[in-house]
Amino acid sequence: MIDRDSQDFDFRGENLQGRDFQGENFQPFYVNYRDTRILAQFQGANLIEVNFQEANLYSAQFQGADLRNANLQSAILRGAGFQGADLRDANLQNADLHEASFKGAKLHGANLIGCQDYSIANWTNAEYDSKTQFPDGFNPYKYGLIKTRRRGESVTRKSKEQVTDELHTKINTALSEIKKSIQKRQGQEKFRNALITYYEGRCAISGCEVTGVLEAAHVEPYSLSKNNNPNNGILLRADLHTLFDLNLIVIHPYSKKLEIKPALLLNEDYKKFHGITLPSYQDNIWSPDDYYLKWRQDNYEKYIGQFLR
């Protein structure tokens, strides 16, 4: 039985593989009659083969969690967040999906038959395959899902070392493809020197001041815009430049909050940046213009993301 205590609702990053939570109540509650709303937090947790059948998971947060083969049959998932979660072969049959978000989730082989209120859930860029079972009348194209091939992978949880090695391989391969597709940048040295001046010789994210490892990154790719305006640039440490190019590090246009994609959250060197405000912006030094950040947010997949597949 789960106690209704704020600490008992925090499962972030925990290994809960195979646990039985059938019928448990994870509904949000308020602490000490204040406006502090406590939600069940499962972000990044290992939830492989966990049993959530008929559980109340109202507004629970599962971003980046591993829910392969999990049982969510008839669960209350109203307002729950599954952004970037791995739900391959999960059973969501007859679950209540009112305003749940599956943005970017993996749904290969998942069973969604009989789900309620699926039409007002967010399915943007969720991935599925020919084995995914949808409710009657569900049109994946209409709701913005993407059909992809399932990548071969063992059902057992991979070690951090394996995940890190595979991530490095993917980054190196994808970056090579991106660079092959982009025309040789003109005026790069001048652009870099301008950014070093504007960012006071510091990486916009890490604050690194070692000039030799600082690189000039374009927000809107130079190959498309031919734009070397410093407002379209950000000065980054070399590794952060690579991750920014691959959209594994995202800067939200108006808040300037950093989003570190789930694949990087296993690495403490990058996890520490998740959710913070871009330091160069917070310190009133310099930051990319909102216009270019919004362009990248809206157009990355169309112009760049295709090379990651």
TrEMBL record:
InterPro entries: 5peptide_repeat, HNH_nuc, Pentapeptide-BTB/POZ_domain. Residues 203-251 form the HNH nuclease domain. The keyword Disulfide bond does not apply. Keywords: Plasmid. Gene3D superfamilies: E3 ubiquitin-protein ligase SopA. This is TPR repeat-containing protein. It comes from Tolypothrix tenuis PCC 7101.
